[in-house]
Design goal:
elongated, binds magnesium ion, 1 helix, eight-stranded antiparallel beta sheet
């Protein structure tokens, strides 16, 4: 070992080695504690997800859902044209069927962000082609009478071609669906939709756009798509500030046989 004549240098070296040893031990302890899986686990009773009982059957509503239609009545709906309640849509054998002469219907309640389940059926006897074949729609937020709002297209596209950004499960004229998951006419089909409403600044400008994720018959068709604004048949979409809004079902003016709905429920998020 090297011997230093000066005792001061010896002292400094001795103290330095102690510091180094202590630092290494501290780093080791830190590394050991970082390996503790508990450090990345959250144990907070106030953050526990609520208990929800899933629906007993496919399409059945979970325990915390708001039932918008269960086959019995139109209590949750009004005419989007004039607020008439009940609307002139037809309930028969547990189904809610579009009345093409009565205009669209919308919920009495208003929503912001939600999960929506809805089932629809195009008649087996459907006729027509392109957009005129079982056309309806789910407006995820109704922003005014008629067809104002943000539409997820309902249409029979089982062996029926139309413009791709207007086919079944398109965010109408904004987003082509990721798949065509249509079943043949006469079969019940499902939409499961997660809607995030747009947020607006006080001056009406967009703070964050609306977003939608949707499954058609269990197949992902819209994946967190950011909307460019409300649905427009002509021209480009745009945003106009609005608050919580009804959900609307479209009565389209095509000449084909009207479609039916059942099992409609929503879970506000
Ligand atoms: Mg439509």
């Amino acid at each position: 070992m090297t011997r230093f004549a000066c005792p001061t240098i010896q002292k400094i070296l001795f103290l330095s080695s102690i510091c180094l040893f202590t630092s290494v031990q501290a780093l080791r302890a830190q590394a050991d504690s970082a390996d503790d899986p508990k450090l990345t686990e959250i144990y907070d009773a106030s953050l526990e997800p609520k208990v929800v009982t899933p629906g007993a059957k496919c399409g059945g509503a979970p325990s915390d859902a708001i039932i918008l239609f269960d086959g019995k009545n139109q209590d949750e709906w009004v005419s989007a044209r004039d607020g008439k309640t009940p609307s002139d849509w037809v309930i028969s054998q547990g189904l809610l069927t579009v009345n093409k002469h009565a205009g669209s219907i919308e919920t009495k309640r208003v929503f912001t962000n939600y999960q929506l389940h809805i089932e629809w059926r195009v008649p087996k006897t459907i006729t027509g082609e392109g957009q005129a074949r079982g056309n309806s729609g789910v407006f995820m937020a109704s922003t005014g009478p008629g067809d104002q709002g943000y539409e997820l297209q309902v249409l029979d596209c089982y062996n029926n071609k139309t413009y791709v950004n207007g086919q079944t499960a398109a965010v109408y004229k904004q987003s082509i669906p990721l798949a065509n998951a249509c079943l043949p006419p006469g079969e019940w089909q499902t939409y499961d939709i997660i809607w995030t409403a747009p947020v607006f600044h006080a001056d009406g400008s967009v703070a964050s756009p609306a977003r939608v994720t949707a499954f058609h018959n269990g197949v992902l068709v819209q994946n967190n798509f950011s909307l460019q604004g409300v649905t427009r048949y002509r021209g480009k979409p745009y945003y106009q500030a609005h608050g919580p809004s009804p959900i609307k079902l479209q009565s389209h003016g095509d000449k084909s046989e009207p479609i039916s709905f059942r099992n409609i429920w929503v879970r506000p998020l």
